[in-house]
Predict the 3D structure of the following.
Amino acid sequence: MAKEIRIGLVGYGFMGRTHSNGYKRVGDFFPELQSRPVLQAVCGRTEDKTKAFAEQWGYKSYETDWRKLIARDDIDAVDICTPNDQHAEVAIAAAQAGKMVLCEKPLARTTQESLPMVEAVEKAGVPNTVWYNYRRVPAVTLAKQIIESGKLGKIFHYRANFLQDWTINAELPQGGAALWRLDAAAAGSGVTGDLLAHCIDTAIWLNGSITDVSAVTETFVKERMHTLTGKVEKVGIDDACIFHCHFANGSLGLFESTRYARGHKALYTFEINGEHASIRWDLHDLNRLEYFDHSDESIVRGWRSVHITDGDQPYMKHWWVPGLSIGYEHTFVHQVADFLRSLEQGAPCPPTFRDALETARVCDAVLKSAAERSWQNV
Amino acid sequence: MAKEIRIGLVGYGFMGRTHSNGYKRVGDFFPELQSRPVLQAVCGRTEDKTKAFAEQWGYKSYETDWRKLIARDDIDAVDICTPNDQHAEVAIAAAQAGKMVLCEKPLARTTQESLPMVEAVEKAGVPNTVWYNYRRVPAVTLAKQIIESGKLGKIFHYRANFLQDWTINAELPQGGAALWRLDAAAAGSGVTGDLLAHCIDTAIWLNGSITDVSAVTETFVKERMHTLTGKVEKVGIDDACIFHCHFANGSLGLFESTRYARGHKALYTFEINGEHASIRWDLHDLNRLEYFDHSDESIVRGWRSVHITDGDQPYMKHWWVPGLSIGYEHTFVHQVADFLRSLEQGAPCPPTFRDALETARVCDAVLKSAAERSWQNV
Amino acid sequence: MAKEIRIGLVGYGFMGRTHSNGYKRVGDFFPELQSRPVLQAVCGRTEDKTKAFAEQWGYKSYETDWRKLIARDDIDAVDICTPNDQHAEVAIAAAQAGKMVLCEKPLARTTQESLPMVEAVEKAGVPNTVWYNYRRVPAVTLAKQIIESGKLGKIFHYRANFLQDWTINAELPQGGAALWRLDAAAAGSGVTGDLLAHCIDTAIWLNGSITDVSAVTETFVKERMHTLTGKVEKVGIDDACIFHCHFANGSLGLFESTRYARGHKALYTFEINGEHASIRWDLHDLNRLEYFDHSDESIVRGWRSVHITDGDQPYMKHWWVPGLSIGYEHTFVHQVADFLRSLEQGAPCPPTFRDALETARVCDAVLKSAAERSWQNV
Amino acid sequence: MAKEIRIGLVGYGFMGRTHSNGYKRVGDFFPELQSRPVLQAVCGRTEDKTKAFAEQWGYKSYETDWRKLIARDDIDAVDICTPNDQHAEVAIAAAQAGKMVLCEKPLARTTQESLPMVEAVEKAGVPNTVWYNYRRVPAVTLAKQIIESGKLGKIFHYRANFLQDWTINAELPQGGAALWRLDAAAAGSGVTGDLLAHCIDTAIWLNGSITDVSAVTETFVKERMHTLTGKVEKVGIDDACIFHCHFANGSLGLFESTRYARGHKALYTFEINGEHASIRWDLHDLNRLEYFDHSDESIVRGWRSVHITDGDQPYMKHWWVPGLSIGYEHTFVHQVADFLRSLEQGAPCPPTFRDALETARVCDAVLKSAAERSWQNV
């Protein structure tokens, strides 16, 4: 009989849906796991919406005060899907209560806010992970395997961008449940913490530490109506951020993110160029990995478009048959599966809070570099 | 309270998984539906495997004799996921027992075998549908909407292919649970009933009736070990099939399918060329629709790569946010949702058994044309 | 000192330009050749236009009667760029006069008309070639090399299409200098002789003989104003043609051509699927060859997009540096270079008239098959 | 009768070939021009190679001392194709001799070296242009037209890169005729002056002035054998360079270039994101322009792949028919045509020396920024 891991979900927005779906599907597709998540309770401030979410997704109960949720004996793991400004308080309390903690990314708004979270989970000795879900796109995991195999040789370049276009309209307000990502108080930063944090997490995973950065940020729309105050207020977030950097392995990095790139919805791409081979990937076509291998015979050498749907490619034996693709949401199923497996093995489930702290440090250095127009060490 | 539709699933192979997933997920993503499927029972011949499937997917019970399943009062709908040779017998019995019937495609091995199925469901007056799931890829449904809007004008050409490469190895046996698709007795035909049937169903839906066909088939590997008999036996299926045809609207059609196209796993593509616009689509990148509109300003006219992930595109408001893709399995969730909605509305859920009969007729004409080396009317 | 090959060009239309450009550029890029073409004379019916063409392109003289051109002692080679209905008469006369003959494709309107041309050049023993220029796209020549290397193994499938959209407008007239391709009397056939002839030539070159065919043709616009008569007349050409066939090597072939595929300007594509590898190519992106090799390591196996601009790829050492592409017109430079080299070597320059006769036979069989709605042997 | 512009070419390397081809072809394809270039003389240091080049390309004469070439009365225009370190001296002397001056890019090694060149041509009042040839790729010129039409609205982002992989091999020497681009003394800089200069020229043309920059450079291979000295010497050039910047119009810029991006031969790409539309382009597929227009109907909105081969697109009426592509070398034909037309019109032919000075200033600021690890104003 599978061991039950009783989940208490805090927040029922977009990420609440993706995580819930992950919990509900993992058993169907990863039957070998010896534990299974149980949707024990969801917590939100607005009772009717919280209750409706619980009913739709099959949570056994709901709470409107996260402190009560944490206090419950029948909760094994607390999953934090709130806006960024609440991550720290909830996570620390949950850890102190001895709960496992799964936290949506970024860890918090700043390194300063993140550090006590790391200390809390480590002091409590509770399993913890951060939902940098893109690591678990099969193509991205395959990129990791290829790099670790040594196929690329010495690395020269890493570049990534995350381009969106959803905030070009200056009439879009900031703040509130739907648009807290535009509100600096809730989000901490704009594209840096929201989008570049993903790029940085992947980059560190694939290419190692970033040592120093030089950045520029821009806020194209300076003022927006604030949903909570009803007034036009200054926009405090970065609409766009670009930085270049050095990695500890000697390679050069280049990162760009914006919400003003007309035509791109969620174009997260990365490319890594090594001495012998290169890899690139694009979230819009997430089942494909582009791979170039200089050791191929020269007359037929070219970028390979690898369709990642075969059973010998990461995670794919759990799904369908060759040629049949999966989508965005599967990354969360994979993270749940890996988290459960890590529990069975008594191993960490990366990225842990401590892993995510490094991303927070890079984000802080990036924002400081942009503010001071100077290079910053990480 | 949602009305329960108690499902009895016959067969627990690949299609048993896709359908089960459809039933389990529909409520989470289509909460507006007033009915919901309940996984009441699964039926298979081998008890231990059937039981294991029931446990993994959460079926309340299991049977090893489909007649018992059909006889149960607590089953509202019978879903047939067996090899093709069993579709007719099960479907007819289910209809006669007053059950709703959902049948995996193709309807049966031949038109002759299919016709009594149509008559049975119509005589019984039971809701029925056939799982030609590719109609419900959002991009394909959008293609239907665009065509119906009149944007294409008069149609000149329709072409489709379905290319695979998984049977090139001559050592692959035929027959048995895993490889019944290579066994003519179980499958009826090879690529014609398996793959071209999909292409034909979509084509008729998008472009209307096919009137006459001229076909060629080939069996590249003439003999294979038979899993059930243990002997090398003649291969009775078509490994490849090509046909051209006329549609009733005056356009020319071209279809090709094979399991010997090295490099293609499940490359189902179609293209339709109209007087004013054209559309094409490809299963390997199923979230994209290519669209060309001659009314665009000439200097910037080109094929548009439309990434189908926005809320105003078919089905997508039920899933994530723009840029975040879905996969193959979602087509089955969509079909379940549409089936449930059709029950609420008292309307048929296309393709019905009768709709699928037309596809069977085209398949029969194709196979006869190939056998007789002559044009055949449908 | 390079030996001069004095060219007499008959016809100064689109093909007259492409050939002239080929003659003028070959020396700059193939300096190792020991002979060089000289633009001795161009011949056309309309004196002022012929003279203007001669001046623009640097022909030393012009004629308005092709018989006079052929009679001139200072002409070594006659290059035929007229509409199809004049190919035979000019070519036969040129051969009888002992001239080398270069003939634009197709050889003539029919096999019957082509056969005496073959006999004439063979009887006269004069060098001859037909401008099926797409063989000499570097990517296509590379495909030939790859196939000959045995990388593909046994061939299962060959498919090609040539899709255009320029005659959709029913107001477009037929006939005359600009639109003789729509006039059956001048062209012989429609897309079959114009476009499919290219596809068939390449196919035979890459995959060997075609043994039998089953075809369908369509004329979507039944009547068009005739430029020469000023009257609305029946359209005698095929607007679209589809056929499937067997190759002598046991593979299945599939060909389609049309001028009614909205969105495609000159989309000539082919794909060949072998046991071990596959190749595909597309004229719109002619510097790329797609190559799939099943012997690649499975987790990183995919279609390679090979950018054919390196010095070790066919013809490319004569041009620029890696990454810098060439275009359509270079195919004609290559054919001139190969023709001159063949003269030096005393070898034929394929496709010869005899080679092109095989394409004519397939075209005839295709048109007969379509007319009689039956398979035809070639 | 066309007026003759007698060309004196200095240098016969790769660029000598591209320019010569431009001069020789322009008359065939731009017959409306009232002047035509004449290949009067080529100048090089090594007599036998210079003579051979003259014979191959049809230059009437040759020189081995560029001062003699400039002194000749029968030379109207001096075209400079030498390594960068000789540009200034030759150009200034040519201008002082009253010759028109066409100079290969970059103008010189530094702004300091470039400024007297600008002053010399302006003082002499001679026509002058710099061969930033990529402006005249039809797709790039079309981008300029689209931007000027106002379709993009306010610009938010401009990004470009130029990625190559040809110097990864550490055994490759530096210096000499073939590899002067790796020798800082001859080239001035590495990828900045060689590749980024192209990107900057296009960017300024399309998006206006760059005001300040923040850059990083890297030299991955620190020492290489020097061809001229025969000794292993320090590599003085930048192997890679990345910078971000502000444009005067308020948009953010991002540029990257390297010769260590395995898999890319000459991947020059740019993308510009405006409020209403975006454009991107890629040298490897130079006949295509990607265009996204937010005003398209939402359900069929997507990036358009525009194949630039139609007569109403820039330069294309001079070439073939829709669908038939041109290549890299045509950009030089276009520049010759535009230069000749500018002479007829008495107008400058951009980019002039003064235009190119702005690119030099940006390059200098980039290199200084990288050296000093600080933002630099241009």
The first helix of chain C runs from residue 14 to 29.
